[in-house]
Design goal:
- This protein has five helices and eight strands.
- The protein is globular.
């Protein structure tokens, strides 16, 4: 079963409705904006980060129009310096490849130790869009269903104001 099929199955099991869009591979929000069609709901940046010791990992989910200031995020959560985690760490902790980073990678984090950092401004969105763990598709779910999915994963979640 593909990573995307695992995501669709998990959402179906949780009773989460979603809209699916297939598209050419995209690596960034800018790539998504360059597509020949429009996916209306708000896209999220999904950043896989690690602290300076490499003993704590974070999945930051940020409004697509914001720049993710890792220094400010570290300060808000009381962490040492944050940086982007390596492709190897991404594969180890979320089972994902670069370009496919998504909240749905938490399904592969069996020890539930990746801390999820959610931009508080996402609460204002009716629907949000993520990759289903591959960068050749996007899926849109309601914000309420996003929280339902997070609760099912059992990872620690912190809501922070990202400037």
């Amino acid at each position: 079963m593909s990573e995307a099929e695992k995501v669709y199955q998990a959402l179906d099991t949780l009773g989460i409705e979603y809209e699916k869009y297939e598209h050419p591979p995209v690596m960034t929000i800018a790539d998504i904006e360059d597509l020949d069609f429009t996916i209306e709901p708000m896209h999220c940046k999904n950043l896989f980060l690690r602290n300076s010791k490499g003993n704590q990992h974070y999945l930051a989910i940020v409004h697509h129009e914001k720049k993710a200031n890792t220094r400010a995020i570290a300060q808000k959560i009381g962490s040492t310096r944050l940086s982007f985690a390596s492709d190897k760490r991404l594969k180890t902790h979320l089972g994902l490849e670069p370009g496919g980073v998504s909240v749905f990678g938490l399904m592969n984090n069996e020890d539930n130790k990746v801390i999820v950092l959610v931009d508080e401004d996402l609460k204002k969105e009716g629907k949000i869009t993520f990759h289903p763990n591959v960068n050749t598709a996007s899926i849109t779910i309601s914000y309420e269903d996003f929280e339902k999915f997070l609760n099912d994963q059992k990872n620690p979640v912190r809501y922070i104001k990202m400037e």
